[in-house]
Amino acid sequence: MTLFRKLLLATGLAAAILAPVAASAQDIKPRIIRFGYGLSESSNQGRAVKFFAEELAKRSGGKLKLKGFGDASLGNDIQMQNALIGGAQEMMVGSTATLVGIVKDFGVYDLPFLFNDEAEADAVLDGPFGQKLIASLNEKGLVGLVYWENGFRNLTNSKRAVTKIEDLSGIKLRVMQNPVYIDMFNRFGANAVPLAFSELFTALETGTVDGQENPVTTILSSKFYEVQGYMTISRHVYSPWIVLASKRWYDGLSADERKILNEAAVASRAFERKDSREATTQSLALLKEKGMKINELSAAEVARMREMVKPAFDKYAAEGGAELLKDLQAEIAKVRKP
Ligand code: TF8
Q: Per the database entry, which stretches of residues form a coiled coil (predicted)?
């Protein structure tokens, strides 16, 4: 061995120099990954899925082929979760809120007015609290890769402008299939109707429900402005999306494939959050242009709502969520700017 080679090995430089050779010898099989999602291809969700597919192709020399299936064409969130658990589908993205049937703890994110802004959400979700919740999916047959941003949720309806809580009275409001949401909106005086997102547009159109709540990006991309005249910027819940893989499938991947998948997921997270945040401002302007009557909930009204839903927090704590809620609030306090 030459002195040069010896030196290389000793300093560990060899690994770096030989890395390109190793890359081509990586254990990657050609695979098709069926990735389901509920929104349209042109939504922020659709754009992020496309980005993810491109990243995977780039990092795997085209071997890992992600095929996106939008508009809930593989099923709604809950149906897809079950398909992943059974191994009939490889991947999906959906709201954490719809995971409560599998891991109840995910409901903690749905309590209202927890996060003040996106930076707080990022820090907590990507930090130990959010990662511990993600890890709890493994024993249920799911692998959580990363959180994406769905966003702060706002109210829309076809009846009237909502400027105070009382305006919600009697409004049939579609909520996600999640007890925290049902409880919260019933306390606000609405008539909460749990329904899969895939059925929402028709339900609004036919008057089965009068209103719904979602981030402005979704209100635009799902064309809710066509059937909803009023929007109230309430930002009542910060809603995360979670990118999931079937554990059965994931366990069959090589270490190299898993590494590529995880790294592409992290890249997609950065893309998705930036893109969604840019789209939020733009969506608001477009919704105005489409003729929606938009008002912002006053600080005083938000304070009233906070007061009104205190019992929802107590209920959540009493039903076994006390410690989790305390942990979450402590994590938020750590990252909150004074
Ligand atoms: C909802 C959610 C949905 C998302 C999407 C289907 O209201 O916010 O928009 O989970 O992935 O159901």
A: none
72 vs 85, 88, 102, 200, 327, CA distance in Å?
17, 15, 19, 12, 34
Which of 214, 228, 276 gets mutated to test ligand 1 (max ligand atoms within 8 A of its CB)?
214
The two beta strands, 211-214 and 154-157, are antiparallel
Question: Which of 40, 79, 176 is the pocket-test mutation for ligand 1 (most atoms within 8 Å of CB)?
Answer: 176
The ipTM (two decimal places) reads: 0.98
Task: Point out the ligand 1 atom lying closest to the alpha carbon of residue 98.
Answer: 10
Distance 94 CA to ligand 1 centre (A): 6
Q: Which atom of ligand 1 is nearest to the CA of 213?
A: 7
All structural domains of the chain, each given as residue ranges with its CATH number in brackets, are 29-150+240-283 (3.40.190.170), 154-237+290-311 (3.40.190.170)
